[in-house]
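Journal club side-thread
Mid-discussion, someone asked how the predicted structure for our own chain would compare to the paper's figures. Pasting it here so we can look after the session.
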Amino acid sequence: MDTSDTLTREFATRDGAALAGPGRDDADPVLESLARTEAAYRSTRGVWARAIAEAERARDDLAAAEDARRAAEDEVRQLRDELAAEREQTARQRERANRLAAALKDVHKALFHGNVYDLILKACMTVTGATRGVYLAARGTDLLRARAAADVDGYPRKEPSAFVRALAAEVLGTGKAFVANEPAEWARFPAPDGPGESFADCLVAPAVLLGELSGVVLLADKPDGFDDEDARVVMGIGDQAAVALENQQLHAEVLRAYFSIVGVLADAIEAKDPYTRGHSAAVARLARRTAARLTDSEAVRAACCYGGLLHDVGKIGVSDGVLNKPGKLQPEEWTLMQAHVRIGRDLLARVPALDGVAEVVLHHHERYDGTGYPDGLKGDGIPLPARIVGVVDAYSAMTARRSYKESMPAAVARAELERCKGSHFDPRVVDAFLAVLDEPDEEADCPDDGCGLMPGATAEHDFRHVVRTPAIPVPPPRRT
């Protein structure tokens, strides 16, 4: 047997041993090592495969987590934007609510002063941010006239144009508000009547007062345009305005009752002292006109008007013998005469609405230098209405015939007022009164727009039954 055969058998034997596996005595250590290496490789490859699979799952989980994070961020961002928008909306609503509350306070003040339609229009403009507007009165679907306006040329005196009537008709016919933020949106209407009616944008809404369609509110030129919320708020203002109108009507009833009281007291003065017939009404009218030259206060003008009318009401408590005595009064009689201011004050103080008038009656005989009666008040310590009535009363008394004297020429009475400036009378009041005398007297009686028992009575109230045109005094025959 040659060497090659021997080697072949040997390798075959080794291969057989390797195939036989470990544990045999004739096993080949190299094959065993290879087998172990292969087993380790297979094991390691399995581990790596599992690791790779886990890594891929982790990568997928991470990607999913990243997607979830981004989605969460988007959701948070969206929520943040929504919250910011909601906060902004809330801030706008709060600002609008504050403006509305302030405006409605003015509307409710119509109980005491002012034109309620002006105040409704102002409230609507304040709440919406409109810069111009008109309040148009209506009865049913019939447009009547403009009652209030703000920065619209010619209104409210002007008759509504065809353009304005068409805008109002749109609302009166449907009972619904409409918004037009572009001029093209009202191209179907007649052309505006001049540049004063050329609106950049407009909101037209019905005004429902006391359960009835009262008119139309036309608002215009809001810088950022109108929206549906503006329309809702404007229509809601009508509810509050209705309350103010009802209050105003009740207030008018109270005023009429007070005016009746004033009329009765004025008649009582004339019945007591025929020499003063017409005197009180003249003092009331001239005092109001003088006050208008010195102040814009409606309260002062009202106090002058009614203080002038009632300044001598206390003479009811003075005997006829003293009132109509032809000669000079004795000291005791003069004391009784001076008491008329306190009597008058006490009478009027029983009427709450006449508190301010009562003070005028009490102090209209005070002197600017402090030498008057009843309290010796001085200078600006004397209420302004009392200073005014004091000057007018003095002039009227000087120029009127009384039981104890003849009338004084107007020029002499004017000179006497000038002479007593700074002593008896407030110089400013004298100058204002003399200026009134130089004006034409265009008032037949106390005008509707300036007098009232309460500050700010308006043209809604008629005072003519209270303050009459002064009659020509017809004194009784003088005693001899």
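Post-session note: The radius of gyration is 48 Å.
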